[in-house]
Amino acid sequence: MTTSAADTRSLVVEREMPHPPEKVWRALTERDLLERWLMKSDFAPVVGKRFTLHAPPMPNWDGAIDCEVRVIEANKRLSYTWNALGLESVVDWTLTPTKGGTLVRMEQSGFRQENHYQGANYGWQNFMGNLGRVLAETT
Amino acid sequence: MPAPAARVFSAMADPTRRAIFEHLCRDGEVTVRSLTIRARVSQPAVSKHLRVLKRAQLVRDRRDGRQTHYSARPDGLAPMVDWIGTYSAFWRDRFDRLESLLKEIKS
């Protein structure tokens, strides 16, 4: 599902899971469950809630991912910002009921919302377009 | 050795530095002076931006008498591109973990 970084600005991972949407939703939104498969956090399913996901620290990075809840639609949609290492991105979860369970879709998109960089006269979108061109020329 | 991804991202997070980098990608080797005229900021400011870009291995410099010429190193962007690839592996792994967790918990 992933195309090369040079020509896309989002990453999609999608999988059908043999569990009802209500159960998947719990795993996505209950803090103790979230910690068991994603990361430790102070997440709460409230629009506007700011929270931090704690990834293992690395050289030059303390592992903190700053997030804010944007959308909560129980058992259907969850969206939060995901800011870390200079990237301002958005993670969107969509749950669609299927015959055998739930289609779980995650889309992480970034490099596209120019207004995230206040006062930037060169938006990321422009930058990524140029990056694609530069990489195509170099190889 | 490429620069750490955090250094590349932080260098590229600044719009003036991105403009300088793009300018160097377009026009090849140029002097600080010629960059200063385009960037509409002072020469010391441009030099400072160039130092940050150099530390992130996004530009290289070449001295020629009293002039220093700068050029872009587009390959310096590799850590940024690799990082997005890393994310893809990250999410696939987390989907596996989510699936095993769902097996464990009762609905």
User: What percentage of amino acids of chain A are in beta strands?
Assistant: 35-45%
Mean pLDDT of chain B: 86
Number of helices of chain A: 3
What strand order characterises the main sheet of chain A?
A: 1-7-6-5-4-3-2
> What is the chains' assembly state?
heterodimer
Task: Please give a structural write-up.
Chain A is an alpha+beta fold and 139 residues long. Chain A has one domain (10-138): START domain (Alpha-D-Glucose-1,6-Bisphosphate, Chain A, domain 4, 2-Layer Sandwich), CATH 3.30.530. Chain A contains three helices and seven strands; from the N terminus they run E-H-H-E-E-E-E-E-E-H. Chain A has helices at residues 21-29, 31-37, 124-138; strands spanning 10-17, 40-41, 50-54, 64-73, 77-84, 87-98, 101-110. In chain A, strands 1-7-6-5-4-3-2 form a seven-stranded antiparallel β-sheet. In chain A, a hairpin with a 2-residue loop joins strand 6 and strand 7 (101-110). In chain A, helix 1 (21-29) crosses helix 2 (31-37). Chain A is globular, with a radius of gyration of 17 Å. Chain B is α+β, with helices and mostly antiparallel strands and 107 residues long. In chain B, 64% of the residues lie in helices and 13% in strands. Chain B has helices spanning 5-12, 15-27, 32-39, 43-55, 78-104, and strands at 30-31, 59-64, 67-72. In chain B, strands 1-3-2 form a three-stranded antiparallel β-sheet. In chain B, helix 1 (5-12) runs antiparallel to helix 4 and helix 2 crosses helix 4. The A-B interface holds A 2, 5-6, 11, 13, 15, 17, 19-20, 22-24, 26-27, 33, 36-38, 59-61, 85-87, 104, 106, 108, 117, 119-122, 127, 130-131, 134-135, 137-138 and B 4-7, 9-10, 12-13, 15, 18-19, 22, 25, 72, 74-75, 77, 80-81, 83-85, 87-88, 91-92, 94-95, 97-102, 105, 107.
